Amino acid sequence: MSRQKASASRNQESRDPRFAHTKKNADAKMFYIHESKTIDFAQPIAPKPSKVSTKVVSLVPKSLNQEKYILALLNPETDIVVISGPAGTGKTYLAMQAAIKALRSGECDRIILTRPAVGVDDEKHGFLPGTLNEKMEPWTRPLIDVLREYYSTTEIAHMLEEQIVEIAPLAFCRGRNFKHSWIVLDEAQNATPSQMKMIMTRIGVGSKIVVTGDVEQADRRTADNGLLDLLYRLERGNIPGLTACTFDLHDIQRHKIIEHVLRLYS
Length: 266
Prior knowledge:
The protein is α/β, with parallel strands linked by helices.
């Protein structure tokens, strides 16, 4: 074949769609051997941006006693807040809301959730399996439920892993010093007087303690009721930096029937 015929044949191939794959294959080979097209596995993979919770924390009082409670929670001059009252009055809910608000605003570095690990009446939980957080999960579930309103399950797991939120059994708080923290002691009516004294003396610089409980739902005898003992002591006189609030049946906001149920069993 002459040089002119060979050149014409190549030109025909380049124009003829039947021969289009020939050029694509050649380009593909060049793509993978070209240095600029190779994948550099040494380069770190950029993490996907995580979704940040943006739900606003709003503490809105629905009664005069709740207003007093919220003002005490938000008052930087108040170091310890003691709140007692019946179920459904928002004791735990408002305490957790204030703690989340303080964490987001940088007023504290972490939230400590604690509660006496006391079974209800004669109910026995036995030795629960799992980690310390998993063992305490049945007792701290009401506190975690409030967190779930503002954070996803993944975010809460991360906060627990990094101890931004810490679940601390009340009996294990002895000897600790909580700095720049919000400590929420829930179901304090099941704590002993010595445990109550212990947790309030764990407060450190930049911290606040919120003690919540209902003396009518105590699973300890009256003599061992730490919350009732504390309220009796506070009747002798207030101390600087400590505010005590009390809710009654008129402060119930959870459901209107709760007030009647409590009257039924009173």
